[in-house]
Amino acid sequence: LFANNLSFNNKNNEPHKPESRKEFPIKEIIKQEIKYIEKPARRITEIRIFFDDNTFEIFKSEK
User: Fold this and answer.
1) What distance in Å separates the CA atoms of residue 25 and residue 51, rounded to the nearest whole number?
2) What are the average pLDDT values for consecutive 10-residue runs of the chain, which has 63 residues?
3) DSSP structural state of residue 48
4) pLDDT tens string 47-62
5) By the 8 A CB rule, do 46 and 58 touch?
6) Composition bias, kind Low complexity: at what positions (predicted)?
7) Model-level pTM greater than 0.70?
8) CB–CB of 17/10 below 8 Å?
9) Rounded distance, CA 44 to CA 59, Å?
């Protein structure tokens, strides 16, 4: 039934030849390295609280 449609884009019904294969360049292996930089812990210096009546309070740490 489908015997005429089995060409699969092979022109002139020629068998696949090794010469017709596309050569792809070998990709270089990339070494991925992640460096973690240690930073000192952050400290809270002040806290601001805003209220719905458009006022606010500031709390600062005592050193």
Assistant:
1) 65
2) 57 60 78 90 94 96 78
3) E
4) 999 999 999 999 998 8
5) yes
6) 1-12
7) no
8) no
9) 10
